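Now for one record:
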Amino acid sequence: MRRRVVRDERHDELFGPDLRWEPTDRLPVTEEAVKGAGLVPLDEIAAAELIGDVVGRASR
């Protein structure tokens, strides 16, 4: 799952079984609740590396 903020508008998405981002309402609304749920932030580079690894493994 990821939360992107574009022009002060929040977009919550999850990486689906078709290996694409799709909208979701599963992320907690507040940043405090996100941290309380044990979720950790990843910067764009770390997230891209993680996704690349998942896609690579899925395509084997």
